[in-house]
Prior knowledge:
Helices cover about 50% and strands about 15% of the residues.
Amino acid sequence: MEITSGLTRIQSKIRTSRISREFGIDALAEYLERYLSEPTIAKVRAAYEFGERQHRGQFRKTGEPYIYHPLAVARILAEMRMDATTLIAAILHDVIEDTDAARDEVSQRFGAEVAHLVDGVSKLDRAQFHSREQATAESFRKLMLAMTHDLRVILVKLADRLHNMRTLAGMAPRKRAQIARETLDIYAPIARRLGINSMREELEELGFANLYPRRYDVLRRASRSVTGDRRSLLREIEETLSRALAAEGIGANVKGRRKNLYSIYRKMREKHRRFLDVFDLYGVRVIVDAVDECYRALGIIHHQYRPITEQFNDFIANPKLNGYQSLHTTVMARGGIKFEVQIRTREMDQIAESGIAAHWQYKLGDRAGKLGTLDAEEWLGHLAEMHAGEHDSLTFVDNLRMDLFPDEVYVFTPQGRIIRLAKGATCVDFAYAVHTELGDRCVAARVDGNLAPLNSQLESGQTVEVITAKHARPNAAWLHFLKTAKARNGVRNFLKNQREDKAQRLGERLLDKALADLGLSLRRLSRSDIDRGLAEMEEPSLPALYTAIGLGRRLAPLVARHFLASDAPIAKNRRAKPLAVEGTEGLVVEFAKCCHPVPGDAIHGQASVGRGLVVHRFGCAYSARKGASADRVELTWADNVSGEYDVELRVTASNKRGLLANLTAKFADADCNIEHIEFPESSGALITIRFLIDVRDRHHLAGIIRRVRRIPAVEKVERF
């Protein structure tokens, strides 16, 4: 045991010494000499010295001193040629979270810009939250908000995650799988969205290897087994294209490459293909000097190899949202083997590899202005809109996951404007992408001039015209088919606001009734009594209190007593009018499924937290079990009640041929919709059928029951 322990310490020292030489501050400073000045490098060294003091005595799971992790993160960003502010923030990115250093101290020593980046990357204290999931979601939301102010926050976080993935071996298998899944679900797609493909591919490869180690190993061995044949063909294609392009005066760099295994695995899973059916294990990239040479090269390649026309994409004319530009074509090579060829300029290639980081590379090289067509601001603006519209962090993260689609479709407005959407997006997604108000009021759409349902999935190249109506409103059923986070957020916000408006009106009526039971009214309350009551309940205003009552978060009879003056008498045996139910209150009034009340029934209500007011029939067994408590509300039906209401009928009849047809015909004759049919019981000659039907009121229901009873085979009709 002692020998093993000693050997472990020696191995740890050897590993630490090697890491110090390769990734220590001296190695980083030597690398930075390639593009930063000496005074700037001195600032980076000062950040290292501060960070080393703060992290002294801390070690990683892999055994080396903790400071080597932030140094490695800084090295990753240095290889992307990031500015000194980003590098300093990378070295200090864990000091606020894991040491005694405060944001103010970091700001005083290294500037407010560095402090903002470090704070943006720092996770929130988990002890503040009820669950690990909520803490993670809140921390991630904080990171995304910081990113909308400065994109370098996410670059530091991505580099941090990349180094953690490279050194994941020190973690327990379950923890490795958890971190790998989060990487594949969130961080790799963010890198894709920002166009940082070099980082994205490594995150995907490492995430796949740690989440599904057996699948990764099987694919790796299978890939190696076909490498020989494909590699020789790849070299042949490289040589053929290089000669053909040079003959036409195009100076091009032609290089073959292997697709990453996660990309192959995802294609196999999504398209239900075997490994041998995935044709683009290898691809060819052609780098030229100018845009016009991209199109000339395309013609030359199609002259050398037969193109597969349906597998061509022009991302130069239609760049991706992350600024990616390239021509993609798939051609047939010797032996019927298909290869994807990507054609782009050197500038486009730099954007494809570095994405948003290319902005800072060009700033450091004194090349002002925007690089290519990279437009991360559009996505950042969308993120800020999502943050403002969604207060629940778990829902925000779900919306973000939905928004990180790798595939996109390009459709047109009638005016010719290009709208980029996630693959599978519908006409409603399109409407919300154009403008929130257009989405709120859409009723139909024309796709390429033809009327189409709102849930129609769009394809690239289509022209979409949205048809609106002045009084149209979003439908909750849309949430089942929407594909973009902006559309889902728009519908949810509308429904939430609508619910709160209705809850406010209902809450005011409930409170007025509860006060009437005490011999008071809202109009007779003094301002001082109202202010005192609101202060006792810690509610900011009367409208907020009404909403809380309408949504069932507070009980009106208990709230009413807060508004009583200390010496005010409570009315004895005073009977107030019951609260009138109109049937149009929507989401804040729910009709109980245990007894299915309809207009004309004697009813009462119960305030339920999170559900609002639940209406029951008098005599409902479930309601009686809850007991007569302070949450009971006396109700009646309003004169102008409207709508259709569910009722459960159970029909017992002779089990004869054609019985169901006769029953459904009677329901149809009575102008009644059948929502559900169930056959729960059958005993020989008799059968009991359960129907859930829609009726307008008790009178309508009585007419339906009379019609059903007239069927000769029917023995009994009961309402439940």
